[in-house]
């Protein structure tokens, strides 16, 4: 089974300083048909205006991944981390028993465009933790690079969730494929460009919900950046 959700069908919010597209129900956007997929709970595509950001706020018992597309996201948290997150870096924060953090765009005249991704943990009540790593374009060109996983395989960031997140850059004749084990779900999000997912064409902001598929196959790409999730059912 493969179901497509088009970019324009997502939830939208415009707070002036923040413009968001919500792939799943979040904050003021609620649709009972889209509460998550497997243990993937949130994908927010956020655009943060210059000199603004998210003030200090709390999370608990959630695996939170940030993936910057443009600009730089300044992160500060109650664990003592003060980091800048540029495009190409992936950040994973395990909120566990509770963490406070803020995210800010310090740039003048340039917005920060990033994806905020939440995945439900396989174990609650853990100690909060943080990790960040650069994944250069060369590692994603023409392939699906594992960037977050339960066990840190292949140099990926590890998280406390039964899920894997891959990132790929594809164009022209380039193709990529990842096997999906029986009984699992998968989800493909097109960050930009065009790509066919198991033969179905998708464009920027579109997503494919997949169940009982044995593989995710990507081809027919035009300047595409793609995220693929292997998820619990």
Strand content: over 45%
What are the segments in which pLDDT stays under 50 over at least 5 consecutive residues?
none
Number of helices: 1
Output the radius of gyration: 17 Å
Sheet/helix structural class: mainly beta
Structure at a glance:
The chain is mainly beta. The protein is built from one helix and 20 strands.
SSE map:
Layout: E1 2-5, E2 11-14, E3 18-22, E4 40-48, E5 52-59, E6 63-70, E7 73-77, E8 82-85, E9 89-94, E10 99-105, E11 112-119, E12 129-134, H1 137-140, E13 144-149, E14 157-158, E15 163-172, E16 176-179, E17 185-197, E18 200-203, E19 207-211, E20 215-231
Parallel strand pairs: 13-14
Antiparallel strand pairs: 1-19, 2-3, 3-4, 4-11, 5-10, 6-9, 6-11, 7-8, 7-10, 9-12, 13-15, 15-20, 16-20, 17-18, 17-19, 17-20
Question: How would you describe the overall organization of this protein?
Answer:
Helices cover 2% and strands 58% of the residues. The protein is mainly β and 233 residues long. Strands 1, 13, 14, 15, 16, 17, 18, 19 and 20 form a 9-stranded mixed beta sheet that branches. The protein has a 7-stranded antiparallel beta sheet with strand order 2-3-4-11-6-9-12, with no helix packed on it. It is globular, with a radius of gyration of 17 Å.
